[in-house]
Design brief:
2 domains; two-stranded parallel sheet; binds flavin mononucleotide; 51% helix; NADH Oxidase; 342 residues; 11 strands
């Protein structure tokens, strides 16, 4: 009898949760539609109602703050903005640029929230290492220098792919992708330090190579879950953190599902000073991102020949990605590229 009661109770909980989840999603979709139609007050009220039956995220709170601000209700806008920050919202630049929140500019309560977020960001940045602890050195298999996929086929078939199957990746595939991204193709003996071993698969302004490449691995055969930094000079991986960080990376990348589901992700960062010390503003505004584009396109093309899907992701919280990957404080994250079999 007790068992039966428990089963009935569980069924009721499951059914109620499913119904609530559904109505939450439905209400939020309707609220988004109302927002698009410029009916901000109605959108905000409906979203508040949805919040009572569902589990709002930091984005939900942020968006409803926008609705209230556009409806002219500063108090409710600030209340939801504050909840959004409590739930993890850290995009302080966007908070200040977002025209939806213009009504809050100049309000000291808004300034306090900006200061609060900036403080959280500063603390996170201060916790970043100046150099990495090398937990292990992983030898990578020699990459292949030929395949049946012509460059024309790879160009024709290249696509951003966001759905992968459950198969793990192999360490050979990771090795091949890393080599394509930044592997050495012309070793230079006694080369100056900035060359880091020689010329690479991707061109770089002044051969200054500002990029760093990480692998966030979760389901790769012969590569334990962890965060690894690529050393192109010796074509090896350096383990810098233990454990599967894919869910954290997914949260840092605005909940883009493909980041959580991919067996591994490449994360690019750049040490801008390597390029800006020589090229100044031109280096910052143009060259580093041009370098990134060359390298990332190599990954896209190499992925085609390996039957791997990937997508270049630029939308994420910089500081959160830095923390998840354990980047040094001189680096800025640029792209996340999930990798998975298709
Ligand atoms: C700078 C940049 C940032 C991007 N950011 C994202 C992103 O955050 N999430 C995503 O799913 N796709 C992102 N993409 C991929 C584009 O959506 C994709 O390239 C575009 O839709 C064209 O599709 P294709 O790459 O298949 O030709 C980004 C692409 C670039 C070049």
């Amino acid at each position: 009898m007790r068992k039966l009661r428990l089963l009935v109770l569980l069924s009721v909980i499951i059914i109620t949760t499913t119904l609530c989840a559904k109505s939450f999603d439905e209400m939020i979709s309707k609220a988004v539609k109302l927002y698009d139609e410029g009916k901000y007050q109605e959108a905000a009220e409906l979203a508040e109602e949805a919040f009572r039956v569902g589990d709002p995220s930091m984005d939900h709170y942020y968006n409803i703050a926008c609705c209230w601000a556009l409806a002219g209700d500063k108090d409710n806008a600030l209340k939801n903005l504050s909840k959004s920050i409590e739930a993890g919202w850290l995009d302080v630049d966007w908070m200040q640029e977002d025209s939806d929140l213009t009504i809050l500019h100049g309000d000291e309560r808004f300034d306090e929230l900006v200061t609060k977020v900036q403080k959280i960001l500063d603390e996170l940045e201060q916790g970043l290492p100046t150099e990495h602890n090398e937990l292990a050195i992983i030898e990578l298999p020699e990459p292949a220098y030929n395949s049946d996929t012509s460059i024309e086929k790879a160009l024709k078939e290249r696509r951003s792919i966001r759905k992968y199957n459950d198969e793990p990746l192999s360490i050979s595939e990771i090795s091949q992708i890393l080599w394509a991204a930044y592997g050495i193709t012309k070793p230079i003996k006694d080369a100056p330090a900035f060359l880091r071993g020689g010329l690479k698969t991707a061109p770089s302004a002044g051969a200054l190579y500002p990029l760093e490449i990480y692998v966030v691995a979760g389901n790769v055969t012969d590569l334990p879950a962890g965060v690894y930094k690529y050393n192109p000079e010796v074509h090896k991986l350096i383990k810098i953190a233990d454990g599967d960080k894919r869910t954290e990376l997914y949260k840092a990348s605005l909940n883009q599902d493909w980041v959580k589901k991919a067996p591994a992700s490449i994360v690019y960062s750049a040490v801008f000073s390597r390029t800006t010390d020589r090229y100044g503003k031109r280096g910052r505004e143009k060259y580093v991102c041009m370098d990134l584009g060359h390298s990332a396109e190599n990954i896209y093309l190499q992925a085609v020949s390996l039957n791997i899907g990937t997508v270049a992701i630029g939308a994420f919280y910089d500081t959160k990605v830095k923390v998840v990957v354990n980047m040094t404080n001189e680096e800025e994250p640029l792209y996340i590229m999930p990798l998975g079999k298709i």
